[in-house]
Amino acid sequence: MxxxxxxxxxxxxxxxxxxxxxxxxxxxxxxxxAEIIKNVRKDGDxxxxxxxxxxxxxxxxxxxxxxxxIDQAFEEIDPEVLVALKNxxxxxxxxxxxxxxxGFVDAKTDGVVRGQLVxxxxxxxxxxxxxxxxxxxxxxxxxxxxxxAGVPEIYMVTPPQEKFNPAILVAAALSxxxxxxxxxxxxxxxxxxxxxxxxxxxxxxxxxxxIFVATAKKQVFGQVGIDMIAGxxxxxxxxxxxxxxxxxxxxxxxxxxHDRLARAILVTNSVRxxxxxxxxxEAQLQTLPREAIARESIETNGRTIITESVEEMFELMxxxxxxxxxxxMDDAISYLPKIKNAGSIFLGHYTSExxxxxxxxxxxxxxxxxxxxFYSALGVYDxxxxxxxxxxxxxxxxxxxKDITKLAYSEGLQAHARAIEIREGxxxxx
Length: 430
Ligand SMILES: NC(=O)c1ccc[n+]([C@@H]2O[C@H](COP(=O)([O-])OP(=O)(O)OC[C@H]3O[C@@H](n4cnc5c(N)ncnc54)[C@H](O)[C@@H]3O)[C@@H](O)[C@H]2O)c1
Ligand SMILES: N[C@H](CO)Cc1c[nH]c[nH+]1
Ligand SMILES: [Zn+2]
Prior knowledge:
There is one protein chain. With 430 residues, this protein is an alpha/beta fold. It folds into three domains: 2-25 and 232-373, Rossmann fold (3-Layer(aba) Sandwich), CATH 3.40.50; 44-228, 3-Layer(aba) Sandwich (Rossmann fold), CATH 3.40.50; 393-424, no CATH class. It contains 15 helices and 14 strands. The chain has a six-stranded parallel β-sheet, sandwiched between helices. Strands 6-5-4-7-8 form a five-stranded parallel β-sheet, with helices on both faces. It is globular and about 85 Å long. It starts with a strand and ends in a 6-residue tail after the last helix. The structure holds nicotinamide-adenine-dinucleotide, L-histidinol and zinc ion. The site of L-histidinol has 9 residues, from helix 5. Zinc ion binds next to helix 9. It comes from Pseudolactococcus plantarum. Its cofactor is Zn(2+). One of its GO terms (biological process) is L-histidine biosynthetic process. NAD(+) binds at residues 127, 187, 210.
């Protein structure tokens, strides 16, 4: 991988420059996606049919996946995959149940009740990627937290396929999706945001996808809610001389194989480890069925950053704010307090990132492109909203009236003051 060495300050400046160059390349995607969204708003299903032909090479007239096709998937699924899906489902549910927020009532002051209701969002659209790989695991990661939150209508979209991987449809049925539509890319996001004759308009869209999907979610934000920018996968590994180079290379490649635009970054204070990881990467790349994708990702976006100290390893990784962060060091748990920005953290030599992709129960829909500075892993909290409520008795209003009216007059807002004064019995015509 391309190597960056020097002081943390120098490397940080190089990374900032590289990021600025990368951000510029986004302009092109912005324009392509804006055009797709405009056409879906204008032509609805007709545009979806035309994009399915153009981008997925499929002739699609009916977007909803039929009950018979889903039933057939249960006949076809490998029984061991079915068991694994059910075990993953159990782990995802048990982890996400901790995220349920109860709301509260505060009634300590006489005549005053305040509180917060936590209410499920009513209609959610979940994107399940399916361009170059199938993602049944992403079905579970999107839908199960929505179900736990109590969302009544969950619409799943995924790119059309000549023949669906049965696990995608089975995962959708097991987790309780309302309807599945075969439509992918930016056009699927536009359809969920604005609605078409076939696809319902939803309140919020969640889920990961490639650069077209991530850019479309950014562009429809405001028309609908979105969970985050969950674009091409990323992995950052912090490793010292105690790390196993073969393991580190395998984990870097686990994310590189997702997408040519995926990003794998090793930060280490050991030149020996960096050299060994480079050798292991080459050896393992040659054996991967998705070598072309992984190689392009590693050669274009992969970086090995060599620092002088452990402190600098964490400082630089916190600046990168990767989607996934592995700490491949002895006593890894003790470094947790040094981590400020990362979507999902994997601690220790044996905690390989794919454990989280499939099985641990933590969510794999995660913020990318440095947005882990302010976004979190998808969770039950993404599928609810909070409504405040207030009750004041007449006595309570009279007690509070002086403060409220003073504040209203100080803002020059007489109608606000009047709304209180008439409840105190003041004659507002005076
Ligand atoms: N961040 C996360 O949480 C997370 C989780 C899982 C997967 N991912 C990412 O999801 C992505 C999956 O990508 P994918 O491509 O396999 O599936 P995808 O479903 O995201 O994208 C496929 C769709 O992209 C559209 N598309 C392809 N080429 C296009 C073009 N030239 N112009 C316009 N639209 C085009 C097509 O509509 C196609 O159906 C990867 O980037 C992977 O890293 C991210
Ligand atoms: N690593 C992906 C998130 O970036 C999730 C995933 C699903 N399947 C395999 N991996
Ligand atoms: Zn993965």
